[in-house]
């Protein structure tokens, strides 16, 4: 019996050794070529055995649509156009509900809560801590984050149900394969444009642990909805202002799209870099059978996207935004010597910020706004007013945002902002650590402190290097 076991073990080892040898001989494309030949044989069998009595019956609308949307000539332009329309509808469509929520939560509810606190005898510091700090941070996240997600996720889900998103993955499969990643990362990348936390969760569709990890680590290079307002604001105020007014809108929009495309470039680059270093391995074969186009179940899709994606992600953002608001209020209202803690930190960071083309206010704002990207601009405005003493603020540590782009621009320029500052803030907005919601989601998905740290620190290092180089080159040339 023992002799038989040894013989079987030798045979198994011989088979494994032979399979490994053949695996490298046949090459990486064997599985693809085999699958392609099976489909070609099947098509030939159908052609030889099926008789069409009516030639018109050969025409299939979905096949002809696929010839266009997956073609090498039209595939990418159509894909970028559809994504542009979705983003445009998200940005434009979110303005009105965001304004309503802002008015309800900030202009109406906030004064009521403040008056209530005073009427029940709350000390000034507790009243300010709760309502100027915690409540306003949460209110800003809801007002700025909810409307874009409530528009983007349903639109994205409708495209998914319609059957278009598998065509996106098909178009980008070759590019991701060359970068050492998986073709399905195209879907998680697109989801990241709505919310990076949702994009990280969406990586579950990737079966390979190695390639899924690459998708998780690089998803932060997708410009999420929390960073779009910062990009649009700065592009409009500073970049659009350097050209004649008739071209300002086009130039501003081009700058924002350019930042988004730059993020995609970094995603491809670091997917390739990771696949060659820390996450070496073979690229999984991605055989995708394109599903038929189908009419989405509209209301079911809307309900599912709102419950499973929008509200869950929003709740996580609220959980982390509340303590951020508390920190902002505390550092702005607790004095050490003759200055607040915030002022001390800002002065300490100013020198380092100058090397990056930024300043201490911006760096501090990004530190305290780690829980949610949506509160970066309000925090910058509040800290700028506190440091410069510009009239019109609502008090130290009170987070707010002005209705007019011109009014915001005046405050930022008073705080020493230049075109270089705006450009580097746009770059740093793209290339900085994920928000705390995304960091938490990365840990939940990877169950690894190591990979959570890598995914969090890598964009910051890239952002520091890029902004430093841009600042130095800018100052040499201009």
Helix content: over 70%
Strand order of the largest sheet: 1-2
Order of helices and strands: HHHHHHHHHHHHEEHHHHHHH
Helix- and strand-based class? mainly alpha
Unreliable segments of 5+ consecutive residues: 391-395
Estimate what percentage of residues fall within beta strands: under 5%
Our count of helices gives 19
- The tally of beta strands, per DSSP, is 2
Largest sheet: 2 strands, antiparallel
Rounded mean pLDDT is 81
- End-to-end Cα distance: 84 Å
Categorize the overall geometry.
globular
- Rounded to an integer in angstroms, the radius of gyration calculated over CA atoms is 27 Å
Keywords, separated by commas or semicolons:
two-stranded antiparallel ribbon, single chain, mainly alpha, 478 residues
Describe this structure in words.
By secondary structure, the chain is an all-alpha fold. The protein has helices spanning 2-26, 30-49, 61-69, 75-119, 124-162, 165-178, 185-192, 196-202, 209-218, 228-239, 245-276, 298-333, 341-355, 360-368, 376-388, 405-414, 419-430, 436-446, 449-477, and strands at 335-336, 339-340. The chain has a two-stranded antiparallel ribbon with strand order 1-2. Helix 7 packs antiparallel against helix 8 (196-202) and helix 10 (228-239) packs antiparallel against helix 17 (419-430). The N and C termini lie far apart (84 Å). Residues 391-395 have low confidence and may be disordered.
Please describe the topology of this protein.
Blueprint: H1 2-26, H2 30-49, H3 61-69, H4 75-119, H5 124-162, H6 165-178, H7 185-192, H8 196-202, H9 209-218, H10 228-239, H11 245-276, H12 298-333, E1 335-336, E2 339-340, H13 341-355, H14 360-368, H15 376-388, H16 405-414, H17 419-430, H18 436-446, H19 449-477
Antiparallel strand pairs: 1-2
Helix pairs in contact: 4-5, 5-12, 7-8, 8-18, 9-11, 9-19, 10-11, 10-16, 10-17, 13-14, 14-15, 15-16, 17-19, 18-19
């Amino acid at each position: 019996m023992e002799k038989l076991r040894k013989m079987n073990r030798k045979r198994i080892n011989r088979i494994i050794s032979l399979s490994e040898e053949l695996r490298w001989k046949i090459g990486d494309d064997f599985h693809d070529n085999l699958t392609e030949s099976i489909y070609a044989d099947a098509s030939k069998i159908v052609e030889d055995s099926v008789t069409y009595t009516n030639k018109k019956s050969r025409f299939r609308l979905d096949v002809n649509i696929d010839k266009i949307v997956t073609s090498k000539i039209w595939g990418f332009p159509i894909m970028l156009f559809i994504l542009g329309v979705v983003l445009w509808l998200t940005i434009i469509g979110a303005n009105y509900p965001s304004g309503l929520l802002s008015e309800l939560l900030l202009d109406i509810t906030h004064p009521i809560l403040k008056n209530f606190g005073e009427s029940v005898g709350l000390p000034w510091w507790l009243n300010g801590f709760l309502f100027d700090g915690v409540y306003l941070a949460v209110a800003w996240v809801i007002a700025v984050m909810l409307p874009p997600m409530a528009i983007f996720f349903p639109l994205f889900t409708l495209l998914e149900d319609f059957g278009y998103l598998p065509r996106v993955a098909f178009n980008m499969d070759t590019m991701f394969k060359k970068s050492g990643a998986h073709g399905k990362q195209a879907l998680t990348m697109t989801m990241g444009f709505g919310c990076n936390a949702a994009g990280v969760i969406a990586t579950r569709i990737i079966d390979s642990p190695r390639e899924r990890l690459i998708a998780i680590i690089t998803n932060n290079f997708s410009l999420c909805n929390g960073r779009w307002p910062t990009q649009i604001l700065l592009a409009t105020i500073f970049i659009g202002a350097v050209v004649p007014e008739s071209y300002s809108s086009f130039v501003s929009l081009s700058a924002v799209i350019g930042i988004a495309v730059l993020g995609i470039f970094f995603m491809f680059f670091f997917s390739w870099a990771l696949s060659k270093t820390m996450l070496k391995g073979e690229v999984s074969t991605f055989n995708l059978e394109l599903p038929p186009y189908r009419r989405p179940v509209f209301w079911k899709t809307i309900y599912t996207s709102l419950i499973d994606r929008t509200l869950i992600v929003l709740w996580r953002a609220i959980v982390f935004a509340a303590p951020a608001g508390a920190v902002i209020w505390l550092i702005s209202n607790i004095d050490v010597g003759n200055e607040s803690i915030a002022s001390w930190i800002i002065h300490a960071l100013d020198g380092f910020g100058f090397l990056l083309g930024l300043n201490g206010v911006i760096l501090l704002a990004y530190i305290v706004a780690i829980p949610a990207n949506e509160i970066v601009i309000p925090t910058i405005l509040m800290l700028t007013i506190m440091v410069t003493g510009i009239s019109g603020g609502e008090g130290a540590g009170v987070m707010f945002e002005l209705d007019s782009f011109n009014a915001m621009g005046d405050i930022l320029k008073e705080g020493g902002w230049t075109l270089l500052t705006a450009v580097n803030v746009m770059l740093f907005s793209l290339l900085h650590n994920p928000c705390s919601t995304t960091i938490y989601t990365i840990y939940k998905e990877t169950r690894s402190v190591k990979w959570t740290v890598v995914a969090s620190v890598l964009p910051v290092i890239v952002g520091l290097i890029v902004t430093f180089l841009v600042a130095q080159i800018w100052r040499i040339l201009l």
